[in-house]
């Protein structure tokens, strides 16, 4: 893993600050962190190391604190410090909660506990009833755990931290029996023990403390960027000996903070999350000897915590093991805003669909899979095929169950497209072309319906004259001519007519040159309406004439700049073509892992956007960083009666495997966006 460091200055500068601070201390000017008062709750037997507020949305004063009682299991305390319950759960070393989780048609609270005895996640409702449908075991020594509930789709995740730096992310999903099952969706790794974490449901920020190193920030979305940034470091930053527990305060704009325990220094660090996690200062908590896990909330919990609360797990073996600190006391001591209570569960209005099938992974590691093309078998739609590029190897042919039935290791194929009806050897055939970056050429194949395989029919190497053949699409004109268009990474785009030759071969003839200011890749031609759509990755979606005689005039359909629906790079472009010129243009907005729809007719008005989330019941992860896609409005077997979208998945995370393609029924897309179906 490559870490993206986010220091304000260099490491040398941080070291210089440390040396200066040490010199100041030697002169007797020891800084004293402000002391804030606290209330205590005692734990029988002691040995606590984690705490989590279990909020009661209907009666906040009745909220509880869930704690880890080691062999005592999960223990519950009132906000007055009274111990009310204990649930056996093995050896509990970490705990977290979420107050609003949909399960079995009801909204319930979920308590997650890390059982180090059996190395598994245990799940409970607020009454202590076990929720897990089966043991959710992980194969390492667990040290920490936190929950994350996505604002995008309300999906619930558990992050499990390990003694050797492991970070496993589990999707917790409902079963038909009203319980919760788990699917491992992402694996991350730090260099040493990671003990504590905290996730912000609203922003998707995940903070992890690596004991001997410091504090990291990840994207909590399993389809998000896996590379973390550093928030603070041990010794060279503001952490004395090791990084301890972490908690978040969300008081709205200007009052969003991260609190990290600095147990060696005997205090707590405060960071401003609205200003790049800037260190604000440190404070001490009255009565805390050995801080471990933390939990915090800006919710109004009644007096004396009407404006929020920090709970500190004090890892002493006897006495007041949990300390309750009113957030305003901390805010006043640190000179920051108390903020306002943030009510409800964060949500957004993005339409969501789930994939129903995924293909086998490609054979190569890294960024390999790129672009698909759908061939609909006119005789037996259930026998239709998907052709996908592996830009490190060649082409793969898949059936509708996602199985690879042919691999052609013919070169680094980037994009692929096809057209039926090309006459070759006196009969109509399906012609398939791909941009061949190895030979800087047009790769040309015929698809044989009987053998369900591709056969190379290029009349020798069909050179493109491009430095790096990249995006590709095909067009069949009203007069029966078949064209292929390929763009280069330098913004050039060329169009060739494909011509049948004796002996069943195909050659190409250059008929048009086009130019974009910057790199373009995805494109699709609307054969019926004669339009060509091209995605200039950082700029926007263009419409041109598909016929070479229409010249270079182009119209901007949707720009990236200032457009909340599009975030560069714009990548794959597909056409859902219904009768009478109706249908949609589908564009992959790679920068925010969504797909934007535009009307096929008129001025190509924007219709809406959707994302592809995980189908946990089928063990299929969501889709992110899509390069290429294809769509069809034709019936593709009984599972796709209203058509199909196939999208490349840039991060195939459940389980972590090489890249692949996901299949999504158009019926699911239409339902999510309230689109009519024929």
Structure, described:
This protein is mostly beta strands and 678 residues long. It has 2 domains: 11-334, TolB, C-terminal domain (Neuraminidase); 351-673, Neuraminidase (6 Propeller). It contains 3 helices and 51 strands. The strands form 12 sheets. Strands 1-22-21-20-19 form a 5-stranded mixed β-sheet. A hairpin with a 6-residue loop joins strand 47 and strand 48. It is elongated and about 90 Å long. The relative contact order is 0.09. The model is unreliable at 1-31 (pLDDT under 50).
Descriptors for this entry?
single chain, mainly beta, Neuraminidase, 2 domains, 5-stranded mixed beta sheet, 3 helices, 5% helix, disordered N terminus
What is the topology, as strand order, of the major beta sheet?
1-22-21-20-19
- Integer tally of domains: 2
Structural class: mainly beta
CATH architecture of the largest domain: 6 Propeller
CATH level-4 homologous superfamily of the largest domain: TolB, C-terminal domain
**Biggest sheet architecture:** 5 strands, mixed
Low-confidence segments, ≥5 residues, pLDDT <50? 1-31
In total, the number of strands is 51
CATH class division of the largest domain: Mainly Beta
The proportion of residues in beta strands is over 45%
Gyration radius from CA atoms, angstroms: 29 Å
Task: Write the CATH fold name of the largest domain.
Answer: Neuraminidase
Q: Judging from the principal axes of the Cα atoms, what is the shape?
A: elongated
> Helicity, in percent?
under 10%
SS field, number of helical segments: 3
Distance between the termini: 48 Å
């Amino acid at each position: 893993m490559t870490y993206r460091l986010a220091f304000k200055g260099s490491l040398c500068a941080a070291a210089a600050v440390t040396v200066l601070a040490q010199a100041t201390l030697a002169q007797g000017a020891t800084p004293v962190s402000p002391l804030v008062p606290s209330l205590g709750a005692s734990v029988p037997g002691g040995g606590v190391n984690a705490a989590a507020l279990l909020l009661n949305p209907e009666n906040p004063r009745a909220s509880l604190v869930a704690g880890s009682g080691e062999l005592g299991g999960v223990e519950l305390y009132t906000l007055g410090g009274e111990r009310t319950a204990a649930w056996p759960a093995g050896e509990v070393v970490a705990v977290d909660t979420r107050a609003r989780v949909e399960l079995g048609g009801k909204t319930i609270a979920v308590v997650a506990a890390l059982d180090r005895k059996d190395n598994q996640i245990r799940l409970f409702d607020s009454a202590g009833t076990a929720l897990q449908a089966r043991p959710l075991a992980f194969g390492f020594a667990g040290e920490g755990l936190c929950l994350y509930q996505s604002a995008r789709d309300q999906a619930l995740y558990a992050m499990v931290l390990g003694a050797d730096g492991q970070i496993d992310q589990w999707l917790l999903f409902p079963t038909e029996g009203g319980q919760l099952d788990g699917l491992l969706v992402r694996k991350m790794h730090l260099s040493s023990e990671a003990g504590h974490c905290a996730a912000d449901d609203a922003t998707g920020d995940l903070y992890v403390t690596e004991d001997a190193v410091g504090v990291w920030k990840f994207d909590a979305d399993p389809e998000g960027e896996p590379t973390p940034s550093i928030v603070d470091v041990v010794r060279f930053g503001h952490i004395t000996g090791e990084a301890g527990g972490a908690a978040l305060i969300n008081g709205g704009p200007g009052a969003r903070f991260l609190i990290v325990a600095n147990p060696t220094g005997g205090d707590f660090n405060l960071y401003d999350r609205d200003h790049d996690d800037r260190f604000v200062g440190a404070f001490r908590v009255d009565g805390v000897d050995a801080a471990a896990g933390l939990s915090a909330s800006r919710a109004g919990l009644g007096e004396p915590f009407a404006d929020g609360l920090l709970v500190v797990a004090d890892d002493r073996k006897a006495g007041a093991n949990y300390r309750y600190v009113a957030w305003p006391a901390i805010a006043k001591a640190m000179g920051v805003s108390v903020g306002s209570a943030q009510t409800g569960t964060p949500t957004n209005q993005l339409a969501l669909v789930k994939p129903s099938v995924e293909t086998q992974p490609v054979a190569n590691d890294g960024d390999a899979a790129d672009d698909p093309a759908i061939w609909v078998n006119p005789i037996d739609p259930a026998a239709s095929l998907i052709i996908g590029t592996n830009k490190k190897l060649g082409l793969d042919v898949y059936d509708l169950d996602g199985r690879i039935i042919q691999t052609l290791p013919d070169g680094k194929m980037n994009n692929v497209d096809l057209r039926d009806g090309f006459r070759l050897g006196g009969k109509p055939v399906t012609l398939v072309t791909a941009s061949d970056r190895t030979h800087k050429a047009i790769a040309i194949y015929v698809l044989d319906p009987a053998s369900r395989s591709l056969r190379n029919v290029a009349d020798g190497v069909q050179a493109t004259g491009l430095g790096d053949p990249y995006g590709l699409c095909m067009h069949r004109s009203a007069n029966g001519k078949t064209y292929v268009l390929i763009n280069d990474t330098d913004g050039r785009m060329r169009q060739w007519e494909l011509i049948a030759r004796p002996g069943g071969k195909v050659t190409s003839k250059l008929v048009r040159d086009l130019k974009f200011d910057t790199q373009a890749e995805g494109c699709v031609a609307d054969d019926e309406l004669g339009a060509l759509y091209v995605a200039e990755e950082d700029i926007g979606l263009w419409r041109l004439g598909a016929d070479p005689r229409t010249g270079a005039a182009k119209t901007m359909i949707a720009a990236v700049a200032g457009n909340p629906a599009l975030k560069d790079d714009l990548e794959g472009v597909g056409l859902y073509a219904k009768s009478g010129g109706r249908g949609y243009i589908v564009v992959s907005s790679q920068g925010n892992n969504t797909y934007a729809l535009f009307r096929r007719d008129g001025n190509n008005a924007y219709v809406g956007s959707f994302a592809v989330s995980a189908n946990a019941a089928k063990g299929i992860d969501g889709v992110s960083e899509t390069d290429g896609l294809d769509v069809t409005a034709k019936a593709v077997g009984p599972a796709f009666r209203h058509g199909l979208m196939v999208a490349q998945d840039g991060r195939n995370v459940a389980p972590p495997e090489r890249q692949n393609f996901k299949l999504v029924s158009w019926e699911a897309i239409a339902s999510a966006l309230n689109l009519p179906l024929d």
